[in-house]
Amino acid sequence: MNDFVLENTIPNTTDILGIQPRYHLRSGFAGLQISDENTRSIRTMPNIFAKSNRKFATAIRNAFKEAETIKDTAIKNCWNTITATDLECILCSRCIFDPITTACGHTFCKGCLTRVLDHGLSCPLCMASLSLKDYSRGITVVLDQAIRFLLPREHNERLLIDLKEAQMLNRNSDIPVFICTNAFPGVACPLYVYEPRYRLLVRRCLLSPTRRFAMAAKEDSGEKFVSYGTVLEVKDAVSLEDGSFILTTVGVRRFRVLSRGEQDGYDTAKIQVIKDTVVSSDKLPELIALHHKVYTKASKWITSLTPKVLAEVERLIGKMPRVEKNWLSLPDGPSWTWWLMPILPLSSQLQVVFLSTTNLEKRLRAIDKMLERMEIRMKSLERNTCPLSEDASDSCDSERTIEIPLNN
């Protein structure tokens, strides 16, 4: 019986001193730990012989204490052999920063792993399957502390590099460009961001002090995006478990593209903010009268929308703004004119023309003409025929980007 107990309880020397890797880095010694099972065996072995042979039990206890000392020395020697190269991230070849250890046991910088996950849920080292939970996986605290303790100089250098890179992005005169649709000053622009390049853009934007990026529509021919757009500011951001974002943004200012570039997969541009030209004093009375006329007509059209459509419009971009007291001095003119842009039946090309126009009077007259055409269209729909007048024919053939049901 005793032979059976000894044979099944006493581990061999290799098992007692066995060291198993916990974190698979570049070093074979990284993250060493002693098997918990063997540790329990070491501590309980002397108790087996305590009653039958006290001297033998004491001898075994002393032997195991010596083994513990040898083990501790071996572990210390292993840690002493670790170099800066052993604790480098295999993706960026820098000292690991905010280490994340995946389920397969490989460790990377949090930022590096996040960018990998944007393109696919697999470990970049062994190609083992990862999950969406790895986006929100916490840092490996024990390894982070070990790096700070063993390689303080390298860790501080990595921290400074990341800070300098962030400062360079913020000081860079180029602004990141989100190529999607036309946005407008003062108007809400809700976005669902899922493309890998734009996930990176948004993460960097949220870390910047301004939380701003440029929005421009796609160009049909030639360049990637149109030459006029709107700078958006992120007001709220929701990060989803799959790494995508839901953003609440608002248009800040219009811009003109001066030059184009690229940064880590997404587009950038040097831009020039544009504003309306100053109206001469002799033309102010005419402009004020025109503004009042068009605003009244636009308000009447908005109230003609069905309650369901109006509720959906207000849910997406808010209610129609009131006229500002200082609308004449605003760089982009009264905000209600831009609020109409997403819901008027304008093509993307015409929206860009509106963005590029710095003459408020021209924009008001264009809106006035569009509202007149829509009124003609509404009357023609009531008669279920198309009017024969030249203006009405144009309205029947004009391109419509959004169909809006109207009350009859």
Polypeptide structure, described:
The chain has four domains: 2-82; 95-168, Zinc/RING finger domain, C3HC4 (zinc finger) (Herpes Virus-1); 173-273, LON domain-like (Archaeosine Trna-guanine Transglycosylase, Chain: A, domain 4), CATH 2.30.130.40; 281-397. Helices cover 45% and strands 17% of the residues. The strands form three sheets. A five-stranded mixed barrel has the order 5-7-8-9-10. It is elongated. Residues 1-35 and 386-408 have low confidence and may be disordered. It has 408 residues and is α+β, with helices and mostly antiparallel strands. α6 crosses α7, α9 (284-303) packs parallel to α13 and α13 crosses α14 (390-397). It is built from 14 helices and ten strands. Residues 357-384 form a coiled coil. Residues 89-126 form the RING-type domain.
What structural keywords apply?
disordered C terminus; 408 residues; alpha+beta; 14 helices; Herpes Virus-1; zinc; disordered N terminus; Archaeosine Trna-guanine Transglycosylase, Chain: A, domain 4; two-stranded antiparallel sheet; 4 domains; metal-binding; zinc-finger; five-stranded mixed barrel; 17% strand
Short description:
By secondary structure, the chain is an alpha+beta fold. The protein has helices spanning 2-9, 13-16, 36-49, 54-80, 110-119, 141-150, 152-171, 196-207, 284-303, 307-317, 335-340, 348-356, 360-383, 390-397, and strands spanning 19-21, 32-34, 99-101, 107-109, 175-180, 188-193, 212-217, 228-239, 245-263, 266-273.
